[in-house]
Write a structure and sequence with these properties.
Helix content: 55-70%
Number of strands: 0
Oligomer: single chain
Structural class: mainly alpha
Distance between the termini: 23 Å
Shape: elongated
């Protein structure tokens, strides 16, 4: 995670000013991410002691940078979110011949990203996430809705409102969660249903014509 990205997240302590402190903090977050990816966010293996042992540091050092383990987990979520934002930006910045191609690329982007690192994906979709993680998710969804609306202006003169795109985000999020609960690569039928749901919504709300196209795949 870049320092600028971290400085823009108000939910946890800001990054330490010294390079050594930043490195030590990063090692703690990386250790937590590896444990969560291996065992899931709610596994007993993800503990303060386990994180510190993996990061080769002490609990006292961890608490120097984080208030508690929930804040460490939140830092992992922020890292994961920033990676997702980076992946999305490739789609948002590209030019597509039609809204159909854009939709296919967008769904494929999410399928590819969520197919990797299943433990972290489980953390992202965790319905029992802490209030801190829930606030991070809300921040992400609001930002994504704005980006979707901005991108939609390339394909229609009726790009809708932020609320329209918040609905798209909610629909897509629920179906992606279902797809990956059924298949670690994203269930084909649910992914197809996701594309159909988004295409229908786009046609009704934004006066677009979405071709059937092909189902969004994923890159291994």
């Amino acid at each position: 995670m870049s320092s600028s990205a971290a400085d823009e997240t108000p939910w946890i302590r800001p990054l330490p000013p010294q390079r050594r402190g930043r490195l030590r903090r990063s090692q703690i977050v990386q250790a937590a991410a590896e444990l969560i990816d291996a065992y899931g966010a709610n596994g007993p293996e993800v503990s303060v002691r386990a994180i510190c042992d993996r990061a080769q540091t002490s609990p006292a050092t961890m608490y120097h940078y984080f208030d508690d383990i929930d804040e460490v987990v939140a830092a992992v979520v922020i890292e994961y979110m920033n990676g997702l934002v980076e992946a999305e930006s490739v789609v948002f910045e590209a030019t597509y011949a039609s809204a159909s191609e854009y939709l296919e690329a967008l769904v494929s982007c999410y399928r590819t990203y969520f197919a990797a690192r299943p433990g972290l994906r489980g953390l992202w979709f965790d319905r029992n996430a802490s209030p801190l993680v829930t606030r991070i998710h809300e921040h992400y969804r609001q930002g994504l809705a704005g980006k979707l609306r901005s991108a939609m202006t390339r394909y229609t003169d009726s790009p809708g409102t932020d609320i329209d795109h918040r609905m798209v985000v909610a629909i897509a999020g629920s179906l992606l969660e279902l797809a990956f609960s059924l298949d670690s690569r994203g269930d084909d039928d649910v992914i197809a249903g996701l594309q159909e749901a988004c295409a229908g919504f786009w046609e009704r709300r934004f006066h677009l014509k979405i071709d059937g196209g092909r189902q969004a795949g994923y890159d291994e």
